[in-house]
Amino acid sequence: MRPQIVLFGDSITQQSFRSGGWGAALADIYSRKVDVVLRGYSGYNTRWALFILNQIFPLGSAKPLAAVTIFFGANDAARLEGTGKRQHVPVEEYKDNLRKMVQHIKSGSPNALVVLITPPPIDVEGRREYARSVLVHLFTRLLDAKLEPSSVILFGKCLYMAIRPRKRLIGQTKQLVYTPSSVFLANELGLPSVDLWSKMQETDGWQKKFLSDGLHLTPEGNAVVFSEVVKIFDKAGFSDLPYDFPSHSDIDAEHPEKAFLQHCPAV
Amino acid sequence: MRPQIVLFGDSITQQSFRSGGWGAALADIYSRKVDVVLRGYSGYNTRWALFILNQIFPLGSAKPLAAVTIFFGANDAARLEGTGKRQHVPVEEYKDNLRKMVQHIKSGSPNALVVLITPPPIDVEGRREYARSVLVHLFTRLLDAKLEPSSVILFGKCLYMAIRPRKRLIGQTKQLVYTPSSVFLANELGLPSVDLWSKMQETDGWQKKFLSDGLHLTPEGNAVVFSEVVKIFDKAGFSDLPYDFPSHSDIDAEHPEKAFLQHCPAV
């Protein structure tokens, strides 16, 4: 059976198969070698993710698990005040939850390579701009539909409530705590990790270059995640894994069965 | 267990998780509903694909198969003369091979939606241009490495042999035979099909707009495949499939377990 790489995380994982996404890029380079399985849950924090852990990684599964990326924290780090409160998870619990995930996965698949990825840096101004642009767009649509002025105002208020800038960390202070927690835990458990928070900030203009709305990734931001994860996977020998079936250039047109007998004795 | 969509085909399927690819786009829109499984085999014709059919679609598999796309023909349609000969499969055998694939899949998964996709139109001039550009690129690299002139000439000859324009149908004549075969077979078996060959040629400038090298797809070409396949899947109700786990907005922060008990009684 073909090995699997499971991508477990929040919206940044869920969106990783969009155009230019890091998940799709992994599926592409490991095609015919490993299956990349998408398990991203938009809006989830580590506390909620624990509820689904057993079903995503059932113990005693026959599927060989080559690797797992665990990529949470952006929602856990939401501010305690306002709408972010329901998603917020204190940093100590965040670290404990990550530890539980790793232990569960390792108990079922001791040889799986588990990689912890920190949340990206967040650009508060970028998130405000994004919320404003969505608001303007929706207002325009409302006005084009010629709704009663009172309805427009009311709807506008509701929209603003719904999409106002996320009550996530002002500046980077809070995020700073979640990122090292994740890296420290990886070191403590002897796991590889990607410090995305630091890595992205090495590049000038990371706010617009890597983030589309102050939080989610542009294609360039996806490329950073892809490149960092592939480094770890390739160090573990993933690119040297054999093809599932013969390359077409190794097939003898007169006796194609030969190539398949070699590669898959069961044929 | 989560249903699967298996994409079975040649290089146009294998490359479908590249940036802008139709396979990745399917994985994205059906995320949290269906797993999209990549089974693309560059250079394969239908004859060779039959050797791996049993392993890709094992009978008695517990995995629920929601759908399969079968997307072969570009290699089968290679010209009988020259290097294409080894990939060429006569059109009657091509049709028989497709029929065997459908019968095998349906015998294991009677409810699976099987979709036949015809090869795209081929732009012979585009393939020549591509081959020339690769050749020039490789020559430049050779010259930069300052090889002996004799080696450069020899290597150049070999390169040209290796990458000269594919001996695939001059013009569209041959392809015309494979495309209706695939569509007729789908009709005969009561299956949905995508007549990509005709669909793409409805757009002026399809040669450059949809094809990157006269055969493989640009992001715009990928978008055509995606759009046609999604139409069929959505007609079958795929977009109405439920999420695997609750939406984050349905989770009560004080009692998160409630949402998970509803959605996954086993928790």
From TrEMBL, chains A, B:
GO terms for MF: hydrolase activity, acting on ester bonds
Similarity comment: family membership: Belongs to the 'GDSL' lipolytic enzyme family.
PANTHER family on file: GDSL-LIKE LIPASE_ACYLHYDROLASE FAMILY PROTEIN, EXPRESSED, ISOAMYL ACETATE-HYDROLYZING ESTERASE 1
Protein name per Swiss-Prot or TrEMBL: GDSL esterase/lipase
